[in-house]
Amino acid sequence: MVTTPESPGGKSEAAAGLTVFAAVMMLITGFLNLFRGIMGILHNAVYLKTPDYVFRFSLAGWGWVHLFLGIAAIMIGVGLFRVSLWARILGVAIAALTLVANFLSAPYYPLWSIVVMALCAFVIWGLCVVRGEEDA
């Protein structure tokens, strides 16, 4: 029997599928932020120097921010494979914080920031668009 999105089985499968998509995207985002954090802490010469930027921190400071957000995103990404409500809520929160952090640090590494911001937007979309039966 083929299930459609309108049938009860199809809705559950769609919810699980989008949550798994968001989990994989969250893991990718987490690892990208983890690597960016390590780069900022250990070898910050890869970043652009922007002397008149309003949100200027030390590059090591941005490195620590991205490192902690990356670790949190990886842990929540693993938790999202269980398709639980708490992981979806924390996933949206961490993806939003990661998106804001990458927006604020975009002048230091623009292309990387844009890619991670797009991944965060996909994570937020994937976690917010579906309301499964476990939420009711």
Automatic annotation (TrEMBL):
It holds the Pfam family DUF7144. This is DUF7144 domain-containing protein. The keyword Transmembrane helix applies. The keyword Transmembrane applies. Coiled coil: none annotated. The chain crosses the membrane at residues 14-35, 55-78, 85-105, 111-130. Keywords: Membrane, Transmembrane, Transmembrane helix. Residues 19-131 form the DUF7144 domain.
